[in-house]
Amino acid sequence: MADNNQSEKKSSPEKKKGMSRRDFMKNTGLVAGSAIGGSLLGGLIVSQRDTDSKTAKPSDKKEPAFQEARMFFTRAEDFKVLEMATERIYPEDDNGPGAIGLGVPYFIDKQLAGAWGINARDYRKGPFKPVSSKEGGKETEVENLPPNPKGAQGQGKTSEKSVEREQTSLIRRDIFLEGLRKMNQVSRDQYKDTFDKLTEEQQIEILQMFEKGEVEMKGVTAANFFVLLRKVTLEGAYADPLYGGNKNMEGWRMKEFPGAYPAYAGYIEKDEFFKLDPISLTNSQH
Amino acid sequence: MAKKLKKVDVVIVGSGWAGGILAAELAKKGHKVVGLERGEEQKVEDFVNGKDELRYSQRYELMQDLTKETITSRGGLDQEALPIRTNEDALLGKDKGGAGVHWNGVNFRFLPYDFEIYSQTVEKYGKDKIPKDMSIQNWGITYDELEPYYDRYEKTAGISGEENPLGPARSDAYPNPPTVNTPAIRLFKEAATNLGYHPYQIPSANVTEAYENPDGEKINACVYCAYCETYGCHFGAKSDPIVTVLPTAQKTGNYELRTHSYVYKVSYDGKKATGLLYVDTVTGVEYEQPAEVVILAGFTFTNTRLLLLSKIGKVYNPETGEGVIGKNFTGHFGNINYLGARGFFNEKKFNNFMGAGALGATIDDFSGNNLDHTDLEFLHGFEVQIQTTGYRPIAYNFVPEGTPPWGKEFKDKSLYYTNRNLYVNALTGTMPWKQNYMDLDPTYTDFLGNPLLRITNSYKDQDLKLIRYATDICKNIMEKMGADIVEEDKVPDDVEFNNSYTTGHFAGGAIMGEDPQTSAVNSYQQMWDAENLFVVGASAFPHFSNYNPTETLGAFAYRTAEGIDTYLTKGGGLLVEGKKEKSKA
Description:
The complex is a heterodimer. Chain A is 42% helix and 0% strand. By secondary structure, chain A is an all-alpha fold. Chain A is globular. Chain A starts with a helix and ends with a helix. By secondary structure, chain B is of the alpha/beta class. Chain B has helices at residues 17-28, 53-58, 99-102, 112-115, 117-125, 143-157, 183-194, 245-251, 300-310, 408-417, 461-480, 550-569; strands at residues 3-4, 8-13, 33-36, 71-74, 82-83, 200-201, 211-212, 218-219, 255-258, 261-268, 273-280, 286-296, 330-331, 340-344, 360-363, 382-387, 421-428, 437-445, 451-456, 485-488, 506-507, 526-527, 530-535. In chain B, the strands form 5 sheets. In chain B, strands 1, 2, 3, 9, 10, 11, 12, 22 and 23 form a 9-stranded mixed β-sheet that branches. In chain B, strands 6-15-16-17-14-20 form a 6-stranded antiparallel β-sheet. A 4-stranded mixed β-sheet of chain B has the order 5-4-19-18, with helices on one face. In chain B, a hairpin with a 7-residue loop joins strand 4 and strand 5 (82-83). The chains are: A mainly alpha, B alpha/beta. At the A-B interface, helix 6, helix 8, helix 9, helix 10 and helix 11 of A face helix 2, strand 5, helix 10, strand 17 and strand 18 of B.
């Protein structure tokens, strides 16, 4: 994220209020790279926002979804690729909303910002032995993703080769940034435009190239990036809404999944199918 | 230098089912017991808001913290082992209660055949039936000798079940009635019966009625909420060590459980174990806990690794087949043992979101030696079951073959079929082989700098023939159940070990037997090479039956507790003398 300031100018919503975060830092002498404690910088920005809210006129508009702001992605252009890629993986249709409508891109942003994004629970000692499609002159076999995890457990296992996939030295944040930027690069090379501006067919075609490992990436194969992207897209569609996806539990409604129901004793023996209105952890904790 | 603590009667590594049973039984007898658990304290209340698939099933909240320690894995002696870096490939339990907290609760007894597999095979088919390098052996105990301890375990855990029409003799019925019959289970039973098989309800630790066990611990009745596997039970209705044996141990006043206590070595004077060395992972302080009796009751991997790190017993050599520590690694593997047939129903809908970890039905018509192996090119067998643990939306997106794995068609079909598919699967037995073993990794280390455990495992023709036979049966049953599309899991000729440890069923490394030349422990799980060191758990299984391991592990723990009490009160000695195995190939 060394070059986050470049995109900040274009994308920061704060700019519309007359002063972008970058401008603010410039004016106060807090340019990126100067040695300044995070807490102080954070404190200053908070006070800036406080001032804004005090001077802002009361609005009759609906309260904004405060959680729908980027926690991890600094560049809007990366996030736009993520939005359209997840929408192609889980599109809006007659059943209901797609990934964007369910908040999946923000879900993924939050996941990458947290422990999962930095592989906080993983074994991270070297030596790392990443598989790469062509690196070092070694052609590695590219696995195809089976639609169904085999076996009884359904533990979301999607691959026979996942232990090899895990050997990259990159953390998940790095993999996503590299993968999404690569998608834009491929889009520009092939269709002279960014991924989000392409037609649905073109977007699908590019995703398929990644799925099949036909694109070269560094430290990880494109196929492995795609496995991760697909997995976290489904997670965003169906995880409890507390994580920022599965907006209004619409993912669960489409799947006829009732969520955090406390008990099914008395129902489970019956022949009829029960279509129950879902319950979230928000419901059960308040 | 480790700080030396006051000597106690018994020190135990681990607080799962094995460590919990030993703690309860020995503390009840008045012995002073210290338990060392590397994880945290936890209790039922921690799971009250636990119906969270992302947190528990996808982010593995209850699984081992791999930043500290993992295993490495490879498919053969000529390969380089890679570390398991994420929990996606290793569902290993942690915290108080161990894997006993996040389990599904399936409870089977092993067969009489399992304990005498070598002699029964030779007797029935002759020595030549056993392929070269298949290292099966007798366990040094019979089913009849173990039976009272099976009964004991079932009563402690409140197992809910019904008579298995083909099962081995029982001294008593299950303490609780079987789980409920659901439409999916009824369909399975009907189909199995029509095919001439003998279905019965899976014996379950999801307890069916409010129950008080012989130690006075109360277990609630299961409400079939479908959050067992990878979850703790918020309702106290899934029998586990934190609602049964651990409180029993604590009530005596003789058991102290120390959490955040990571054991890294057994101190050993060449004849006896003198205690355990551990580090408090909160303070970083190292301790030595001396004890009269030392018990390793961690997972298979922990037990084996501690013996190797402590240089106790003769290290196994996969080239010669000599030595014992690390020998006979076996397990149930996701791509060769745990497969079956999925059926898609175009019109029929099931409440797949309801369930319980062990809710289902099974048949024993093909288990172990219920199958005649005369014309078969494999030994042992499989059970077939429908196990309705409950479909959760992230992990369960089954679609008929030919459907793309993402996009419009995938979304539409995965939504349509979520409650319109069922799975019937087999679980096959795994035989041990000379080349499948555990040792210390030459490259990768844990957070203390000690080598990780390395697993070397490969599949054999036996495994392939057995699973194909088994999935064919699953397919027949699924067809009989009336599915419109039946898809049998296909195992390719060149199937390879997938280095995946998600089933949680792994055994060996410190196996039991009659002969100290070919086993690490006797049938009391007492080390031949250190009479006051007991290595308890599936680490002692010489092979893996087709059944889930917990009940057998629990029964052996009860028997071992009795042996240790005898050892402590009668002044030591081997509880069973070793003998040169007459029957060994």
